[in-house]
């Protein structure tokens, strides 16, 4: 019979807030590279990305870049578990037969990256009849909650791989499809604002971003890789809000 201490010891954290039985991978600045902490079993090729460009879908993830991948919900759950959190709650902002909007709020436990303080982080997602398909259309609340959870975890941990639960799986969808009438996320609002400003495609927006960077209006942080973004949904929530302010000004 196993001793009762075996399980608890696997969850024991050190003075830095890190699990003692886990080997972490670090960035040059000393922060944790949460992207590299994702096990390959939780990643797979983004079928829609390849099909929309009329390219064959790879059978493995070998050699693929982040914007060509999707991460399973299981991978996001494992990352949240590794990082550690004490509270998780959902707030339903809208709940109608064809549209559900939800925010997910997570209280991450202290670690050395947060100077020993807990951090609340929140993100939003929606599920509609226009961005879901098959049986998912009957469980919009669940889909919206899953999407909000995925976005909250990956945006907080600076993960730029889109979650499988986040993508539009409706018929004739593309990786960057977001419903203008229903999207309430920072990325969705950014897309809608760009459309209203005359920049109707993501490529046109990227041209504007390059101009901002070149002229010094907005310097892209070194840790970001805009080249890996294939659509508005790949833009981190923080940057999406900053871009919105620049466009409106």
Tell me about this structure:
The chain has two domains: 14-165, no CATH class; 185-249. Helices cover 31% and strands 16% of the residues. The chain has seven helices and six strands. A hairpin with a 2-residue loop joins strand 3 (85-96) and strand 4. Helix 3 (73-83) crosses helix 4 (140-156).
Which series of helices and strands comes N to C?
A: HEHEHEEEHEHHH
Number of strands: 6
**Domains counted in the coordinates: how many?**
2
Helical residues, percent: 25-40%
Contiguous uncertain segments of 5+ residues: 174-182
Mean pLDDT: 86
**DSSP summary: helix tally:** 7
Keyphrases for this structure?
single chain, 249 residues, alpha+beta, 2 domains, three-stranded mixed sheet, three-stranded antiparallel sheet, 6 strands, globular
Quick overview of this protein structure:
The protein is of the alpha+beta class. It contains seven helices and six strands. It folds into two domains: 14-165, no CATH class; 185-249.
Task: Give the helices and strands, then pairings.
Layout: H1 6-10, E1 43-45, H2 47-52, E2 69-71, H3 73-83, E3 85-96, E4 99-108, E5 119-128, H4 140-156, E6 162-163, H5 186-196, H6 202-215, H7 237-248
